[in-house]
Design brief:
Blueprint lengths: L1 E3 L7 E4 L2 E4 L3 H12 L4 E5 L7 H4 L5 E2 L8 H4 L14 E2 L4 H4 L21 H8 L28 E2 L3 E4 L5 H4 L1 H6 L3 E5 L2 E7 L6 E7 L5 E5 L2 E4 L3 H10 L22 E11 L11 E2 L5 E4 L2 E2 L1 H7 L4 E6 L11 H11 L3 H4 L2 H7 L8 H10 L1 H17 L15 E9 L7 E8 L5 E6 L4 H20 L3 E5 L4 H7 L34 E3 L14 H18 L1
Parallel strand pairs: 1-9, 2-12, 3-4, 3-13, 4-9, 5-21, 13-23
Antiparallel strand pairs: 6-8, 7-17, 8-16, 10-11, 11-12, 14-19, 14-22, 15-16, 18-19, 20-21
Bound molecules: flavin-adenine dinucleotide (FAD).
């Protein structure tokens, strides 16, 4: 059942056994799972069914380090469905190495075993429509060449590990019917939770306060409360609940809001393959269910331990579409479309901005020249790609063009190591429902940058050792290039980190806030490390695990 909070009376009290704050993928999956077990749920969403600028603005933050963090309007979505309304759809779980004891990486100990999450991967794949949990090319039928180029074996470096791609599933659209039809789920939209009020004993929740944009207050009561507001907004709600708890609920260790991490992504080198150009697998594969797959260069678990390296991968991309010297009409067409006024309708802003990065003034003429010279290929490309990208239910994640010279840029993606000095905190400035805004201070460590450069050196040596090619750096100072590439902001890890002992974190291994009997946080903020994987698969795996616990509790 859907309820527009605007229709609720001021000071209304709503109750249900389980109150869930945030109807993004985590909140929706949790609600649907509890519904199936016959448990009534209040699912509270700040956003509406459609996008609203005024509601989105509630989540705006003030980054102390803006060059390292995109605006929140690009990193979150205040709408039923959360960030899945604008996400990319890239799906893969963390690697076992991410949960290993890595003494060379301080603060990286997870209090749960990787194996305890693996049983949830198949069901996560169903929710995401990204196919079965197979992330190794050797296990995909019908794939003849299990490396990126022939003659490159799996060893210290692997080219057979995969990413899978979702539709990409917009949870607000895909599961709306089920939410609407359910008699046990009440989805209240347009209600922003502003504070968690604890009992006098400070170990239970008395109620959660919600407020509409019109200023109506609503009180939410239950037996169990789960905060699924996304990494940063879940943390913000805990920080804002500081009436009885200094520094906010969950700040018993002083770590609430600390360890804010994500990923480092960018390009510092191109790869020259010496193998036959037609044998390079530069683009997506598809499995028997037509799910898109992407190959990468990754490292074996043993190698990462031996070399004390953070978890880092890379994949092949074309050179920047913004630079017309590529001479390609299709790439120029893509650049001109994305950088035009139409561009914001063609891709989520974060993805659009990343795609057109590096644009040079006055390059338009050269781009048009490329299109004129390549007019036939460009004309053929538009309807085919347009259909696959914008009309087909399963959308192609992007486009890649073969390089006749067998040269591709390498896009790296690696983990930012846990860092207590990288943090978010509350400002005095308040939003329109009276909540204090977040300040974001992203801090890197030298090892984050060095790790990326070392990873490239290892890839280069491996390619050369197997006579498959070599890397060419864009500049003489690749580390400076890594430092200049912007940070993440989309995966929002660490600020309510999980730990066995209360003094080491915010939530316990079951995602329950240490010291509370009935309060849980379920978002990427509970993750201890960032790994090389994007967060969605692990968030939903933890959400399914929590759903199971809540069912057992009852
Ligand atoms: C541009 C972009 C691309 C991405 N691409 C990928 C990708 O390719 N692969 C991948 O794995 N991940 C990707 N992500 C990340 C992924 O979308 C998120 O990890 C995922 O959506 C998190 O789900 P969630 O339910 O925890 O939080 P969210 O999706 O953030 O949902 C939280 C919900 O809670 C609501 N909310 C917040 N605060 C309150 C409050 N106080 N009261 C009430 N409601 C509240 C919000 O409005 C929102 O609807 C991407 C993200 C972005 C922004």
């Amino acid at each position: 059942m859907l309820i527009d909070a605007g229709e609720l009376e001021d000071q209304a009290v709503l109750t249900a056994p389980v109150v869930i704050v945030g109807a993004g993928p985590a909140g929706i999956v949790l609600a649907l799972e509890l519904d199936q077990a016959g448990i009534e749920v209040l699912l509270i969403e700040s956003g509406s069914l459609r996008f609203s600028e005024a509601l989105q603005e509630l989540g705006d933050t003030r980054p102390t380090t803006p060059e390292r963090h995109p605006p929140m309007s690009e990193c979150t979505r205040r709408q039923v469905g959360g960030a899945s309304v604008i996400w990319g759809g890239r799906c893969l779980p963390y690697d076992p190495v991410d949960f290993d004891q890595r003494d060379y990486m301080p603060h990286s100990t997870w209090p749960v075993a990787y194996e305890s999450l693996v049983p949830y991967f198949p069901r996560v794949g169903e929710y995401l429509s990204c196919g079965g949990p197979i992330y190794d090319l050797h296990q995909i039928p019908g794939i003849a060449q299990t490396s990126i180029v022939p003659g490159l074996p799996d060893g210290d470096i692997l080219t057979s590990t995969l990413e899978r791609w979702s539709l990409p599933t917009n949870f607000g659209r895909e599961y709306l019917k089920a939410l609407r039809k359910s008699t046990r789920i009440r989805l209240v939209h347009g209600l922003s939770c502003t504070e968690i009020e604890s009992t006098d004993t400070g170990d239970r929740v008395k109620s959660i306060h919600g407020r509409t944009l019109a200023g109506h207050d609503v009180h939410l009561r239950g037996e169990r409360y789960v905060i699924t507001g996304g990494g940063l907004n879940s943390t913000r709600l805990l920080l804002s609940s500081d009436r009885r708890h200094e520094g906010g609920i969950g700040n018993h260790s002083g770590l609430l809001g600390r360890f804010y991490t994500g990923h480092l992504g960018g390009r510092i080198a191109r790869v020259h393959f010496s193998t036959p150009p037609r044998d390079t697998v530069y683009s997506f594969d598809r499995d028997q269910d037509r799910v898109y797959l992407r190959r990468r260069l990754s490292f074996s678990r043993e190698f990462l331990h031996r070399e004390q390296l953070p978890n880092i991968v890379s994949w092949l991309v074309n050179s920047r579409i913004s630079d017309p010297s590529h001479g390609n009409g299709i790439m120029s067409f893509a650049y001109l479309s994305l950088s035009s006024r139409l561009g914001k309708h063609l891709a989520p802003e974060a993805i659009r901005r990343a795609a057109i990065k590096g644009s040079q003034p006055g390059a338009t003429r050269a781009h048009i020249g490329n299109m004129v010279r390549d007019w036939w290929k460009t004309l053929k490309f538009i309807p085919t790609f347009g259909y696959k990208r914008y009309i087909a239910r399963r959308k192609v994640p992007g486009f890649h063009l073969p390089s006749r010279s067998n040269i591709y840029d390498l896009y790296y993606w690696g983990e930012q190591m846990p860092n207590p000095d990288s943090r978010v905190s509350l400002l005095d400035e308040r939003d329109d429902v009276g909540m204090r805004r977040l300040a974001i201070d992203v801090q890197y460590q030298a090892g984050d940058f060095e790790g990326i450069v070392r990873a490239h050196r290892f890839w280069d040596e491996y390619l050369q050792r197997h006579d498959c090619g070599r890397l060419e750096y864009f500049s003489d100072d690749p580390e400076a290039d890594v430092r200049s590439q912007p940070g993440d902001g989309f995966h929002q890890i660490g600020t309510t980190r999980m730990a066995e002992r209360a003094e080491d974190g915010v939530v316990d291994p079951n995602c329950r806030v240490h010291g509370f009997e009935d309060l849980y946080v379920m978002s990427s903020s509970v993750f201890v490390t960032a790994g090389q994987a994007n967060s969605m698969v692990m968030i939903l795996s933890f959400a399914l695990r929590l759903a199971e616990q809540l069912k057992q509790d009852r």
